[in-house]
Each structure stands twice: as C-alpha cells, then as structure tokens.
Specification:
Helix content is 32%, strand content 25%. By secondary structure, it is of the alpha/beta class. A hairpin with a 2-residue loop joins strand 5 and strand 6.
Length: 186
C-alpha cells in the first residue's frame, strides 16, 4: 500500500473558506493524501475543486468510482463514497443508499476505520451545522487516529465540531491556524 498518511477533513457551513486557508498552507513536498468531505451540492463541486487547485501546490481532484488514492494528492468527495482496500490499494467505492448528508462524513470516516492497515490517520471536523462526522471521528479515535475539531472561536458554525467534541472529549480543539500547523506537522 503506497499511502502511509491519510488526512480526512469534514466540513459543512463555512467550510469552503476554512478549507481554502488550509490548502494555501500545504507545500509541494507535503507527503500525505487528503480527502475532503464538504457538504455541497454536486453541481458546485467542480468549480470548488478548480478554486482549490488555483491555491494549492498539490493536485486536487473529484472522487470517482474505483479511483485509486495516490500520495500527495487531495480528493474532494463528489457523492457518498467509502474507501475500500482493493488488492492493497485504497479506492473510492460509491455508496448508493440515501443518507442524511451528502457527501457523508460519517460514511467515509467509518469506512477508513474498518481498513486501517499501517496508515497514520488524522481526522478533522471543521465548521458546520449538525453532527455529521462525530461518530465516524469517534470510531477513528478508537483505532488510534489523531482527531481534531475546530474550536468554537474559529468556527463559522460550531455544530459539527461541538458534536464531535462531545462524543470524543480527547480530541484536540484548535483554531484554523493551529489546524493548518498540525496538518503541516503531520
């Protein structure tokens, strides 16, 4: 398996601006794979990916069925996807049942929690309404992932990070600048 470090970032309301801040801090030597789950309707995601590509030193692309995840690449979920282990590679697998949120953070986080094989994982919950990502992040914490929730002062809407912090009180609660630093340190 070529991926050794995987960063999962879930966001909703207020997320695009916070994600732009994170993307701008990533240098071209960054040695990890990032998967972004931003609650956003599919027609808007391609322009969002284009914006991220304009501000990033790594390639940013949309998820696709059976796409093999590569190191030093950033993926943005277009629909509900899980990550599966396929012959030693991590691949996106479309999930076709309806869920409360789409793309769904819990779905993706839980899929990674079930395939953890010598991969260092960081799970981040950014600003947003609701509780998507809270249970998935809690499950990732149980397998040793580093979990970070955006703090109330930094969040546009503190719903998702608050729900994740309540389920996993040991997760770090950091502002967006500190989150950028932790990602770079990872």
């Amino acid at each position: 398996m070529s991926i050794k470090k995987l960063i999962l970032i879930g966001a909703s309301t207020g997320g695009p601006g916070q994600l732009q801040k994170i993307i701008k801090t990533i240098n071209k030597d960054f040695d990890a794979t990032i998967v972004i789950i931003q609650h956003m309707q599919s027609p808007y995601l391609s322009s969002f990916v284009k914006q991220l590509n304009n501000n990033c030193n790594l390639d940013v692309s949309l998820s696709k069925e059976n796409l093999v995840l590569k190191n030093r690449t950033i993926y943005v979920l277009e629909e509900n996807y899980e990550i599966k282990d396929k012959n030693g590679d991590l691949v996106f697998h479309r999930y076709n049942k309806p869920l409360n949120y789409s793309p769904n953070i819990d779905l993706l986080f839980n899929s990674v929690a079930s395939i953890n094989k010598n991969i260092k994982i960081m799970a981040i919950i950014l600003t947003g309404i609701g509780n998507d990502g809270a249970s998935g992040a809690s499950n990732l914490a149980k397998i040793g992932a580093t979990c970070i929730n955006e703090n109330e002062q930094s969040s546009i809407v503190y719903g998702m990070p608050k729900a994740a912090s309540e389920l996993n009180p040991n997760a770090l609660q950091l502002g967006i600048e500190e989150i950028c630093y932790k990602i770079g340190e990872f």
